[in-house]
Amino acid sequence: MARLPRLNLPNIPQHVVQRGNNRQVTFVTDTDYILYLNKLEHYAKEFQVKVHAYVLMTNHVHLLMTPTTKTGISQLMQALGRYYVRYFNYTYKRTGTLWEGRYKSTLVDSEGYFLLVSRYIELNPVRANMVTHPAEYPWSSYQHNAIGKQINLITEHDVYIELNPDVKKRQECYRCLFNTEITDKTLDEIKQSTDKAWVLGSCKFKEEVEKLSGRRAEPLATGGDRKSKKFKKKY
Fold this sequence. Notes:
InterPro entries: Transposase_17, Transposase_17_sf. This protein is of the alpha+beta class.
């Protein structure tokens, strides 16, 4: 099956995932994590991309970002990927690819899904049994969003800011979101949308994206659903 073209729309958040080739380690020492984040900040400014949440795992990264241009995220990921591969190969005396093909991404509906994806990202180390609480993991935006550590890389999204006008209370509200577990169904929805380049959001949001992008935002209906009036009207 032909690969769908990426959905890149200005001012709409994207959940981006980039994995190490064959699950190989992509971060070895603290220096690696620090350099990656520094370069992420550099290229985010260069290509006018706002970074809202992130986690750097040992063999992959999750990023929640909003581009201000149509090509911003693609340019950022290409530049960052090339730079980091050169650094990693030189540092660890290796050659060849580091990342697993092109990065995965999905557009994220700010209403109802933005904070959900932010939690999903920052809970990755907990789901991987690396820590028991996201506050224990140093390489994630939880340090900024929930605890208040100043991370210049982070641009706070309006949805996050609207949690509370007071900074400390906002962080408290954000921490409270983590008291609610993300269901397996929702975890799968986020993963599938990102891996297959479908849109993560409400039906209304998906319809808006389809109008703007000119391509489907979700999989075609199957079986009897394809014969329904709703399906025929839409497609």
